[in-house]
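Notes from the 1:1 (GR / supervisor)

We went over the backlog. Supervisor wanted to see one worked example end to end before approving the batch request, so GR pasted a single chain during the call. The sequence is below; no edits were made to it. Supervisor asked that the structure be written out right there so they could see what the output format looks like.
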Amino acid sequence: MAAPDDLDSLAEALGRGGVAVLTGAGCSTESGIPDYRSSQGLWKRHPQELGTPHGMEAWPEEFYAFYAARVRALQEARPNQAHLALARFQQAGLLAALITQNVDGLHQAAGAQDVIELHGSMAHTRCQRCGRKDRPERLLEEVHGLHDRPACRHCGGPLRPDVVLFGELLPEEAAERAFRAAESCRLFLVVGSSLQVAPAASLPGQALLAGAPLAVVNLDPTPYDDQARWLLREPAGQVLTGLARRLGLA
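Structure output shown during the call:
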């Protein structure tokens, strides 16, 4: 359990504002959203092989079944205490940026706004040909091969999840905003990310180089643990609720 002094001093730093937050899969597991590691046993291929542009072309039935399962899981998911606490921090004017590696939209469902979604969003699909977006439920349509994928209502092109697949570049605007926030924040707070996926994993390093202290709330080790001023290996909801309570925001 985190020492009260650790939470007290972190709450004091958080209360000064100017905080950039990066959230990962561990922020949403309490909402019942499995991460890729825990869900890989459900599929013949590893998600990092299946969830790629090549996987979409080579194994369309399995690719779309994989993302249809994610759509169904998200339809049942609700924001947890971590999402709610972060939304309250933002509403209190304490956050300079809320950056997420997640694609589940649970920060917005909790009331957060202007979320920097590094890996896109499962809130809609995108046409490979014309770029227009559609409802995520289009991914629930049954697929029977490469020429039977969900089709764009406007141009007939193939629809895909509006997320960054493995091997694709991050959205340029989102990445630029995230790095600017890391370089200018007063405190960088990592919540539920093991910081293994580049380039998001380098954001804490940017903040440290700029002189901001680092706080890591994650159950598993990260490459930045030795450089973190606060290291809390506890569930995100528990830690953030404790911080919100100390700030009078619970």
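Supervisor's comment: The mean pLDDT is 91.
Batch request approved.
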